[in-house]
Write a structure and sequence with these properties.
The chain is an alpha/beta fold and 257 residues long. The protein has helices spanning 24-35, 47-59, 74-88, 111-136, 160-180, 205-214, 223-234; strands at 15-19, 39-43, 64-66, 93-96, 142-147, 185-192, 245-248. The longest helix has 26 residues, at 111-136.
Amino acid sequence: MSTAYPKPFDLSGKVALVTGSTMGIGEGTARVLALAGAHVVISSRKADECARVAQAFRDQGLSAEGRACHIGRMDDIAAMGEHLRERHGGLDILVNNAVLSPWRTIADTDEALFTKTVEVDLRGYWYLSVEATRLMAPRGGGSIVNIASVAALHPEKMLGLYSTLKTALIGMSRSFAIEYGAIGVRVNTVLPGVIQTRLADAFDADQKARVIAKNPVGRLGEVDDIGHAVLYLSAASGGYITGASLVVDGGMSITAM
């Protein structure tokens, strides 16, 4: 047994930025990283929500701060980079999770909605990741995890644009992994299935039952399921993994859709 990493899931001393982390998958992931010892930056568009969640983390004895950032705005991305540089001297982990998921047919996806969604779901991920690599390089590297969706593999009606951009994230992760591997930055993608969040609350009992019936594990996912996958990829445990796409859906994507 190798003794190179005696604590493969320990993030003590690491700084992690999780976008869209005031609720759902983002908040759950941030909590998992904080429990592993990281100082987490809670981020979303609303400063008051960032402050609320960060304070809740601190009340639980975790290390956290709130910092608003609208990743659809280039100025906000630059400001976040400057904040991390000045306050923490860099960054170790970036989890790109903030998202827009318009419920529209392809025909009804007008240009304004298309542009707004691309600005958040792809451009924001791209340029925040570029900023992250600059912050990680002086620290000898780091981890970027892009949160996609099983919709990248199995597109759904009414989620055409969302599915398309989640597919694009897989290619983005692979491209960044190739280009930034030499400076120690690993880039991977996590593809969640149906996770028990506010979005899943929109399903009625019959819809949930049908989803669970198709799932080999026999349940909906929990936010911690995604958080633990991100932890695995971000800690020493995932030190030899980059450019990978990890499906976390209880096996639903291997069943007949």
